[in-house]
Design a protein that fits this description.
By secondary structure, this protein is of the alpha+beta class. Helix content is 39%, strand content 28%.
Length: 307
């Protein structure tokens, strides 16, 4: 691996979580860890004061207490030139908010690797058009980074597949259900090229929507057991339940049943949710990904008969 290549960092600027990759001293791909020791960082920004902005886990945990000072899912707004938010008298756009996330990622990556983070490649969803890609590049420039490339996420996956698997002209499907966006791509890869045959997706469909379904279920179940409807206006408690919903979703990946104890206004609500229940309450979301996949494959067949 050449010195220039070793000096380049790859950034997955995700809708819900972001991660930084690099080539380590052995020539292998690795990911950096942030200041809290995690390899992923929540893509959340908390404007605590005029002088201080917080990015990551603390920002995410602050969303319930200070909802008007926290921004999340900003990737869904990339390319929207009309989107603006003001904090402490300063206007912020999707690129400027994303730049704060990128700056935090770069700072943590430097601390973890001991290398200066300057040259970067940023991955974006396949459906990102020129406006979204330009906004992403602008975010990197605002963060003081030299963005040497904007790479579609499925192409990045294909490149990895070509290194570890087959690149003999095989056509394969990349189904990318991220935290906040859904991407579907049909890709043909040879030893010398990566050809994207078709793309589709929904920039407002992702894991966060699965979380929201479970969150709604937990809120309604807690109110039913505690008999206190004031929960709907308790922002701090709602944030706790959002965090609980995300954790429960992950737990149900391995467990068939999860029992939750939620305490509110002196009453303990015992809530049981099964994987089957969760699958049923989110079936419409999954069905939408299948519909988009089928449509994308049909469009690909139209453009490239016999693929």
């Amino acid at each position: 691996m050449s010195e220039p290549q070793q000096g380049i960092f790859g950034i997955d600027l995700g809708t819900t979580y972001s991660v930084v990759g690099y080539i380590d001293e052995t020539g292998r791909a690795a990911v950096t860890r942030n200041s809290e020791g995690d390899d992923t960082t929540p893509s959340v920004v908390y404007f605590e004061s005029e002088e201080n902005v917080v990015v990551g886990k603390v920002a995410k945990e602050s969303a319930g207490l200070y909802p008007d000072q926290v921004i999340s899912l900003i990737k869904r707004e990339m390319g929207d030139r009309d989107y603006q938010r003001a904090f402490f008298g300063t206007e912020h756009t999707p690129p400027s908010i994303s730049a704060l996330i990128l700056s935090a990622l770069a700072k943590d990556a430097e601390a973890d690797t001991g290398r200066k983070v300057t040259d970067v490649v940023i991955t974006v969803p396949a459906y990102f058009g020129l406006l979204e890609k330009d906004a992403t590049r602008q975010a990197g420039e605002i963060a003081g980074l030299n963005v040497i490339g904007i790479v579609p996420e499925p192409v990045a996956a294909a490149l990895h597949y070509g290194v570890t698997g087959s690149a003999d002209g095989t056509t394969f499907l990349v189904y990318d259900l991220g935290g906040g966006t859904f991407d579907i791509s049909l890709i043909k890869m040879t030893e010398t090229s990566v050809e994207v045959l078709a793309v589709g997706g929904d920039h407002r469909l992702g894991g966060a929507d699965w979380d929201e379904k479970l969150f709604d279920y937990i809120v309604e179940a807690t109110i039913a057991e505690c008999g206190d409807d004031s929960l709907r206006d308790d922002e701090a408690m709602l944030q706790e339940l959002r965090t609980l919903a995300e954790k429960t979703k992950k737990d149900l990946s391995t467990a068939e049943t999860k029992t939750l104890i939620v305490r509110y206004t002196g009453t303990a609500a015992k809530i049981t949710v099964t994987r089957k229940q969760f699958e049923e309450m989110t079936a419409d979301l999954l069905d939408e990904t299948v519909r988009i996949t089928a449509r994308t494959l049909a469009e690909a067949e139209e453009r490239h008969p016999g693929i």
